[in-house]
């Protein structure tokens, strides 16, 4: 668990963030943009037509300078690209001894597959003990219900246990990310929040003919953090 005594890096207090939306659609009467709305103009919009590495280098470069830009992605293919880009950037940052995390948020209250991923980084040594502690295991598929998965994540978080959410394929990865967004909302009244560290891992799967083959899974290592009163 990330200590509640230490301010969490770049934490978004709001669990819905209208990043990338036209402020005129969300504010009656138009008028001058607020300071918060101006801050939301600096982001990286993810396209499903690009490869994850296209974004990973920029994410890593920003992290080295402690200048994190949120990622916005709509639809399972783009969300899959976004979270994979973070996982690749995390590998790029190993030699810098930095650990990269993301905190997903719904872009509106429809709670669909339109997400903002807020990034943060800390010295890897600060999370070494946490990452080596015991985590629960959850598997998410393309037909999994994100709300059900979110309930399991939230339940583990309330018990003080982190969880590793494993998914394979764009739809399953999207469900895992959306579930993490829901879990953040479920935990708001408990003064608990979560961050995710995306990790690639080779897993053995059984084919319909009984043979074994290796596939690359995307694992979200979900860390718990306490939230202090403002």
UniProtKB/TrEMBL annotation:
Pfam families in UniProt: SpoVS (PF04232)
Region (Disordered): 1-38
GO MF, one annotated term: nucleic acid binding
Superkingdom of the organism of origin: Eukaryota
Annotated InterPro entries: Alba-like_dom_sf, SpoVS
Stored Gene3D superfamilies: Alba-like domain (3.30.110.20)
Protein name per its UniProtKB record: Uncharacterized protein
Biological source species: Auxenochlorella protothecoides (Green microalga)
